[in-house]
Structure formats: C-alpha cells, structure tokens
Design a protein that fits this description.
The chain is α+β, with helices and mostly antiparallel strands. It has a domain at 134-188. It has helices at residues 2-20, 66-69, 134-157, 166-188; strands at 24-26, 28-31, 37-40, 46-58, 79-91, 106-108, 190-202, 210-217, 221-223, 231-239, 257-272, 275-294. Strands 1, 8, 9, 10, 11 and 12 form a 6-stranded antiparallel β-sheet that branches. It has a 4-stranded antiparallel β-sheet with strand order 5-4-7-6. A two-stranded antiparallel ribbon has the order 2-3. The protein is elongated, with a radius of gyration of 33 Å. The protein starts with a helix and ends in a 5-residue tail after the last strand. Residues 1-21 and 95-115 have low confidence and may be disordered.
Length: 299
Amino acid sequence: MKRLLFTLMMTALATSLWAQNPYISLSGVVEKTDGSIELYAPQSTVAVDVTVACERTVCGPYARYAQKFLGVRAPLTDKCAWRVAAATVALAEGEQWASDKVADPTSSLVSHTEGGAEFAPFLLDKRSSFAPTLEAAAQAAADAIYSLRKHRMELITGEAGEHVFGEGLEAALEEIARQEQAYLELFLGKQSQATYTQRYFVTPEKAKKQYVVCRFSEEKGLLPSTDLMGNMVVLQLVPEEQVTSPIPEAGPKDVATATCVVANRTACTVQYAGEEVARAELPLFQFGRTVTFALPRRK
C-alpha cells in the first residue's frame, strides 16, 4: 500500500512540476503505477539555424566592350560569393526535431535571370554572308540599346504618335524594357542571389561551453564542422550563476524524497569571424541545479 501511494505521489508530482514550469523535471529512476520503471534524465538540445546568401555573377559575352560602347564597367569573370546572412538559436522541441533542414532553399533575383546562365542570342543580319567579329556584334548590340531608348522616349513624349496610350502604351514600354535588359546582359552579365537556411542540433555537455556548429567558406558556403577549409561558426554557452531554488530541499529526517533538476538560464550566442550573429537566453538542464526534496507524508 505504501509503495502504491509513493508511486502515485511521484506521478502526481511529475505532472504538477511540468504544469508549473516545463523546465523543472524529475531526475533518476521512478516506478510508475503499472509497475514499469521510467528513467528521468533531463537534457536540453539547442537548434541553431544558419542562413547564408550566395551572390552569383555570370560574365556577359560582350563584357570587354562595355566601357567602349556603353561607358560603363562590367565584370570580366564569373564570380560566386557567399556570406553569412543571419542566424537564430532556440530550444529544439516538438516538431523541430522532424528534420535537420528548415526549408527548401529560397532564392531572390537581383536582375532578370529567367533564362538562367544563358544569354539571349543577338540576331545577325541574314543578308550578309560574312560573320561579324565579336567587336562588331557588340557594336550592333549597343546600337540596339540606344535605339530602344530612343523609341521609349518617343513613346513617353508622344512623338511616336498620339494614338499610343493606355494599356497599349504600358505594354509597349514593358516590351522595350525587356529587350533592353536582354541586350544589357550581353555586356553587364547576369546577377542572382539565393538564400539557404540549414539547421544544426547541439546537445551540450555540462563541462563544455563552446561548440563548433559548422564551418563557412566564402567560396563554398556552409561546410561540415570537420572541414578545415572553412571558418568556424561557434555556439557559445554562458550559464547564469546558480540561484536559490524555489523548491525546499529535504532534511536529514525526511524519509520519502524525490530528486528533480531545475534548468538554468543560459546565454546562447552564435558567433562567426569574431562577430555575434544571434543571441538568446534559454533554460538548459545541463547547467541546472539538482534538488532533493521531501515528499508530503500520507497518514
């Protein structure tokens, strides 16, 4: 009978503790009412989301002639530069354990890149039997750009005709802008930006306060924590000083006792290249206080 009462008290205690504070948990072996044994070993796991952005530049085929025919400088080589855009840190609970990847990569375009890395072909004069040189083709493309700009101005000022207005004018201006962009990309190239978010899980150890979540390279983006080709993305943990527990501890004369762990608030920061990119205060069991308290007596 006493054993049953003790089991019932432990079960009620576990429910009561969780209802009052989800960051207080029983610790040790507890016998349940059905006779089974349950081990309480509370641990906290931290989820770190790292968001990186990739800015890609594809050199245009007429890039070397941009300064000569358009008066602007253009990139002469393809580039792909990565950067750490953001990060978040939180407790890994419930559905957050479903996947180590937050979402599919998302991308946002800086310029018109519907055709990917391919450039719109410039239509050559089919009446000529001679293939133009690259410089001659660039000159023709530049002339087409200036011609489109002239036609746009004529439409805006009304010089193209007084009957072009309303939706017809808007459609004409949109088509001119599309064609001009296609010609400009032959000189200036194409730029696009893609954003990726990756989730990492860290289960801290009591004696360890710093963890390498992953590594990052400006050329390759996110890398595994073991890849020494990238710089470290670090999770730093700084627990608060232990304070007096709100639960009164058991005395030497108390016979029926139970043990619980009170999670301790911990400053969790994500750092890269010496700079803080994310910060949160989280209750972690690993740095908490273990308290043994007396169970109420039953007469």
